[in-house]
Amino acid sequence: MSSADHSQYLHQLSALSARQVAGPALLVVLGTWFLLRRFSSSRVRTPKLKGPTGNSLLFGVLGEINRGNSPALFDKWAKEYGTTFSIDMGFGKTGVVLGDVKAIAHFLARDTLTYRQMKFNTVLLELILGPGLLWAEGEVHRRQRRPLTPAFSNSSIRGYLDVFYANAHKLKSQWEGIIDSGSSTIDVQNWIAKTALDNLGIAGFGHSFGSLDGNEPEVVGVFDNFRPPSEVGAVSKIMFLLAPLIPALLSIPTDGVKLLASTKAAMKPIAEGLIQSAKRQISQAQDTELSKSIIGLLIKAECAESGTFGAKSEEVILAQRTILFAGYETTTYSLSWAFIELSRNLEVQQRLRKELMELGTDPTYEQLMYGLPYLNAVVQESLRLHVPVPNIVRVAHEDDMIPLSAPITTTAGMVISELPIAKGTSVWSSFTQVNQSEEIWGADAKAFKPERWLDDNLTAGAKSIQGYHHILTFSDGQRICLGRAFAIANIKSTLSVLVRNFEFELPDGPDTPIGVFRAAVARPKVDSETGSRLPLKVRRAD
User: For the chain, what percent of residues have pLDDT higher than 70?
Assistant: First the structure.
């Protein structure tokens, strides 16, 4: 090129507008970023599996999951596509659903580490409860969980049993008063919720809510009026469906978001009062209900470590919110379903009452947890069939290889015995699908059959489940429910008092339709009733 040609070329180049240069340059940069992201961020690719496609380009099947009975949906899809399948999550995203026992064990063992919550979930949990145990991941999760563990030990729960029995007998007296007044119908779920709250108040925080005595704490109204944002107006519903893709939408103060935030606000004065009481009692070395409670043990542990209380007071408040919110809803749910199943299966109810009456008194801790086989079988079977949190979803934060119990075939026809999971893939685990799988539990998997827990009757498939007592109701691995033994003792002690003293029936017989009331968990209700009402016919046992 001559000197003149070179000068002309430079002149033409300099005449190009910034827009003309910037446009192609931006495309090059974006293209390079896309290629680097595609080929460098993940060393594996998640294979395409069979699964349902949604009717919505925006939401995939998420709309169906949010508005319907998700356990029934996952069961239907598992029968059609196999235990491990894909789901359309909208915007071209695909998730993987695990129903394979071996795969789920691997997945849950890596929860909070390889697999972490969706950003949407963490924003939602922080809005409701703050950055506590349910919100935390990895080392933060371990650090928050560690000091709480001793409060849920067998020795600690043994100490809470007096509280559980005291409230169960108080509930018994209330029901006797209702029956003596001439009424034979009792809204059992309402009374169970009161009992659950009072048990959590005293055993959890040394705080008496007095629900069984007629008090109506503000927090009860918040819990009972709690709704998922998708249930509170059209705008909230649309934003809630979009929020998994755009978590920042949860910062917009819609009616649904305000309702969620009110939960945290209602628990604030309780937590602040607890902190003040704790400081006073610790300084005076008082031995009170608070000092023996779950939170009291947490406070003592901090004082022993640092010599003072206050450095981690915010974590105590977060723990209090989490225990109260999670414990109240799940215990109410599980006990309500236990009474429904006993009312549907009167011969089971009679057999359980016989076992309890033969004992003749409130069971000791050892008897309650290990010495009443039919009570244990009834509780285990109810927990197996009715899971408060039926499924969870996590996002892979690194590539992984998930082992499978049996080979599966991809849509490309490839048979695989391990499932590659690329970083960024959404992975679902369906606890109800496993708990009710006919392949695992047999042809009667969906039937309420306590006898399966007696005399080593469990199938080999059921014994392969690594969850608590071979069910996934309490999850497993890093996030296994910390309060599982607390919940079991609470449920068993309440049942032991009430079943020994009363007989229960559904209002229209064993086939009375049971519906769902969508709250923090999907509470059961008599289908014809409003709200979460669960009226049962109750009379004194002969």
Answer: 83
pLDDT bracket for residue 9 (50, 70, 90): very low
Considering the domain 118-393+468-540 in this protein, what is its CATH number? 1.10.630.10
- Half-sphere exposure (Cβ direction) of 404: Cα atoms closer than 13 Å: 18
Sign of CA dihedral 206, 207, 208, 211: negative
| Mean pLDDT on 26-31 | 42
Nearest CA to 392 out of 433, 448, 347, 453 is that of: 433
- In Å, the largest CA–CA distance within the chain is 114
The answer on whether 481 is annotated among ligand-binding residues is yes
Q: Which of 412, 481, 472 is nearest to 107 (CA)?
A: 472
pLDDT (mean) for 354-360: 95
Give the chain's end-to-end CA distance (angstroms, integer): 111
Q: Which residues of 457-493 are buried (b: 16+ CB within 10 A; e: fewer)?
A: ebeebbeebbbbbbbbbbbbbbbebbbbbbbbbbbbb
The answer to whether 457 touches 479, Cβ cutoff 8 Å, is no
Q: Which helix (H) or strand (E) holds 418?
A: strand 415-421
Distance CA 386, CA 53 (A): 27
Secondary structure of 345-399 as H, E, C letters: CHHHHHHHHHHHHHHCCCCCHHHHHHHCHHHHHHHHHHHHHCCCCCEEEEEECCC
Nearest Cα residue to 204 out of 363, 316, 129: 316
pLDDT confidence band for 305 (50 / 70 / 90): low
Domain boundaries, the chain: 118-393+468-540
Residue 527's Cβ-side half-sphere holds a number of Cα atoms within 13 Å equal to: 6
Query: Can you tell me the distance from the alpha carbon of 89 to that of 95, in angstroms, rounded to the nearest whole number?
Result: 6
Give this prediction's pTM: 0.86
Average pLDDT over residues 396-419: 95
Q: 357-388 b/e with 16+ CB inside 10 Å = b?
A: eebeebbebeebbeebebbbbbbbbbbbbbbb
The pLDDT confidence band at residue 161, using thresholds 50, 70 and 90, is very high
Is residue 403 within a helix (H) or strand (E), and if so which, with residue range? Answer: strand 400-409
